[in-house]
User: Fold these one by one.
Assistant:
Number 1:
Amino acid sequence: MKKFASLLLALMMIFALAACGETSEPDANTSTAPSENSGTEEAYVTITITADRASDEAQMLMVNSIVERIPAETNGRVQVELLAPGTMGSLGEMTEGVMYGTLDMAALPDSTSSPYLTRNLDFLNMPGLFDNYDDVEEILGADGWLGEYINEVMEESNMIRLGLCDNGFRTVGSVDKPCVELSDYAGVKIRVAENQINIFEFQELGALPVAISSSELLNALEGGTVDACDQSITNYVSNGIEGTVHYINLIYDRYSSSSLCMNKDKWDQLTAEDQEIVAKICSEAAQLQFEASRQIADEYIETYTANGTWEVSERSASMDAALEEIAVKVVEEFGDLWDPQVVELINEHL
């Protein structure tokens, strides 16, 4: 690789010097590289990609697959540069980066991206949309009734959605007592994301929701600021609280999805042939992440249950009934903020 990089750099310097005598300006969006098949020069595009943190095994599996496969399967016409995970700022800043082209590709949580997009995706935070992973893939996949809608919103926001990624179903982790039945939530101080729908849901359950950032969660649980938290299974470990919570209820009230997105301007620089190749690779890499994320979550449940750290319970019948009622109330309370087309589809689904 070092020899190839040196050769590539030398060739680029030669091309730059040769171009000094030309009257036309080179295209700032493309460079030149040797074709392995013909030995001639041809335009190539470099895509930058990153992850929000290196500790996310499933996401890094996806990113590394993209980094390795795209240059190989486009015969070098499309290069991929991996930027160090965590160096492109918050997830919101990464969303803006992909929209405006300072970053070309990343997996962006749909609910986190919502404030930056042309349309409101906050409805993805409501309970009752998904019962299981089959629902998720059917509804949020590229051809699903919500997947098609998100595709449109991303393209309006100058991004191309290339795959569905997994952030997991939400669960409730508590310190001193299990939260299984509806009555268990009365007066419980529970950490939630700073989202009005999440806050509304837990207020309706009788809990006392507190919006706290993930970085402050461990101290909040240990210090008694909150008694419980709303997390996906993998986030207990990534946030370092797996040993602090003792009871995990698989409430699965909401699902957290991400979209693997690419800047549309950079996408348009690709030839039709390379767009097809990149789309296929990214779709397969996202599926790899989706499956790996689920497997890691299952392994965490098995490991921490077996060693006595967690006591895990399923969602109860009383919670089923309560969440069905809350889903309807969420649409009544927040539906005016959403696209009427989505509200109609959600009402049909509920």
Number 2:
Amino acid sequence: MKAPKRSIAPDNFRKGRLSEAEVHQWLLDLRDNPHVPESGFAVSAVFRVRAGDAEDYYFAGVNVENMDHRLSTHGEEGAISGIVTALGKNAEIVEGWVMGAPSAVKAGDKSFAANAFASCCGKCRQQIAGLAQEKAKIHYMSVNGAVETTTVGKFLPELFTFRQFIPDFAKDLGRDKAPTSAAVQKKLLRKGPLTEKQIESWLKSLQSVDYATKTSQAMVMKLDNGYYVAGARVEEAAFVDINAAQAAVAVATAAFGARKVEAAWVYTKGRDEKKLPAKTVGTLPLSALQTLSEFAKSKKIPVRFLGDRGLSVKKTLASAAALAPVSGQTFYRVKNQKM
């Protein structure tokens, strides 16, 4: 995999109400970014999101394939990764647009693919429903700009989400002041260099969707273009989850296209009865390590696991697999390190 030579400013988040024409052009621009070495089928997605007392936040995503197909993230999941990483679990999708076609298809082509609609797959419908109400509109947009509209309730009838059985689901939705564009971007990505303390503070500011496990996990990755990007785990009621590595890679790919990863930092935090034991750090599942391996500069890149009160365990990507959780144990006990 070769990182693109072009150097562009990230364009995976915008604030301010957009027209349909502006969204269409954004979706077209994003078609250069997907990592699709096997299918060659590029998907881009944009979601309008409610955050605090505003509804004009837009997040973009593209599909990112993995040699283990089950670990691929779809364009809609890429946008959702950015939403949760930047805004936490109280964000709500109020509208969305999805475009999909073979990578070679361009606007103005007369081919069938340029005029066809790519609808959301079942997995993505479940993911979208986890952050949206049934009335939220989803627009399928062709490369040439034709539009077909449905709603979450229509494309996923009798939906199953956390909203049904978690009493405090989105209880604070809309009560907070809307964050600034700068604050949102600072949660998603930052230009380096960054210190270890800055990265740790960034990680601890992120919030996962953690209704099932009550355990949040976030990752920051250093990219080969000098940027750092973040991702927070997104749990879903049917366990069609997005792990922290998938989320970070999705944010990075939507912003820059496929890039090499030079280092990674991980922070895990439990709540209520799921709090991590003292003197432990959270570990990464093998699925997250597989995702990271797809883009790692080498097997020797450093992966640092951070805990509270200064705890830190440094591994290489190759050796981090030894810490992978077994039988539900999601932590590693740190020895011989002062608290």
Number 3:
Amino acid sequence: MDLQQDLVAIAFLVGYYLAFAIPIALLSAFLPEAKREPIRKSYHIFASLSIIIILRFFSTWYSALISVLLIMVTALVLVVILEKFKAAPITKVKRYSKKSEIPFQIGYICIVLIVLLTLFWGILGDEFKFIAAIGVVAWGFGDATSALVGKSIGRNQLKQKIFDGKKTQEGTIAGTLAASAGVFAVLLFFNPLAIPGQIVLAIFAGITSAVVEASSRKGIDTLTVPLFVCAGATPVYLLLNYLEGLF
């Protein structure tokens, strides 16, 4: 554990969160309720990209995990305070119940980070930590894009019982493409495979992300998408890595 490196990483991560969170919150305060959805979804994209900072700059998985959880708990306390005093409209997203959605989403993210950082960095080691980034980025880009496209131009609902009845074919296709593109960018950054293998893994992750997102209800996709994408991407990566070794 390198204390100096971790302190720099914490400062960088907090600065990153503040750089996008404050402007987005202020912007949302001046927008009518009907126009806040793109702002809310932008949180997903920026939050998902923070996994790159976490994996790149912290010296160990446990220092990263402890630091991120402390930041998340602090954010949760601030959200509860702001909501109590009606100080921030962005904290009052109540799509599924009378309670604010934001605290639940922070809780889901905490669970995801605990599982992914512990398993794919702490247990499996540095070689596999990019898998954590695949799951989180697939969720961030796929969920945001599918929701925005589905609500704006979605006309054909997914009628199969496995899917949430509110999801559309247009949104799911857009989410697949966005998640695949985001994952491919992650793979280019970490470079675990040759380009053909990265393309295959990115497409697989994008499709998995879209299917799980369309099947998840009441905002639980924040939890299910990263976990399912990582669970599926791991054996696919191992297979692709093995095939590369043969040729």
